[in-house]
Amino acid sequence: MTDLSAFPIATRWPASHPDRIQLYSFPTPNGVKVSIALEELGLPYEAHAVNIGKKESWTPEFLSLNPNGKIPAMIDPDGPGGRPIGLFESGAILLYLTDKTGRLIPADPARRYETIQWVFFQMASIGPMFGQVGFFHKFAGREIADKRPLARYRDESRRLIGVLETRLKGRSWIMDDDYTIADISMLGWVRNLIGFYEARELVGFDDFRNVAAWLERGLARPAVQKGLNIPARG
């Protein structure tokens, strides 16, 4: 049997199937990237809900695997050389899974790097900006009388959606006909912006027809529909 005893996180969230990939996550835009990728790839995995509302990601066990204290994190018992590997940061995990399987990323080196740049675009731009819109539009920040921060993040989010709109003109996916981790990295964020964050009108989302069509295509994928709710919130 695979031994995960070297990972303290496995004591708080014990593995029923230690020979499978262990995912420690919560169904947020960052969390569902990895569950969607695992569903698309068909890799056996076991999902553990790390309840961020109860601050479980700040427990010593979780921090032992992800010192940044954010979901998701992952252990692959069959890592490089057949040895277990623990990983954090969703973008790094997506890249790892593509390297492990040779799927969800183009084989051509130039197109591979082009794909990676769009994953980084999500991590450095879309994720942080959309998250701030959520804070200032829906959560505690909405009570701040000075609306300049909200306007700043609204305008920047609209600009970023415009970048996607231009990229998706004449394309089914970020990488033309290839559905990749670039799409997976962004689908949950765009969905959250107009759904959970209730910012559809705020950012003028209906102006961006290419992005809207791309989102509809992505959400229609069975693996996406399943992955969006993994791990279950309970």
From TrEMBL:
The keyword Cell membrane does not apply. GO terms for molecular function: transferase activity. PROSITE patterns: GST_CTER (PS50405), GST_NTER (PS50404). It comes from the Bacteria. Keywords: Transferase. Residues 18-105 form the GST N-terminal domain. InterPro entries: Glutathione-S-Trfase_C-like, Glutathione-S-Trfase_C_sf, Glutathione_S-Trfase, Glutathione_S-Trfase_N, GST_C, Thioredoxin-like_sf. Residues 108-234 form the GST C-terminal domain. SUPFAM superfamilies: GST C-terminal domain-like (SSF47616), Thioredoxin-like (SSF52833). Pfam families: GST_C (PF00043), GST_N (PF02798). Belongs to the GST superfamily. This is Glutathione S-transferase. The lineage of its organism: Bacteria, Pseudomonadati, Pseudomonadota, Alphaproteobacteria, Hyphomicrobiales.
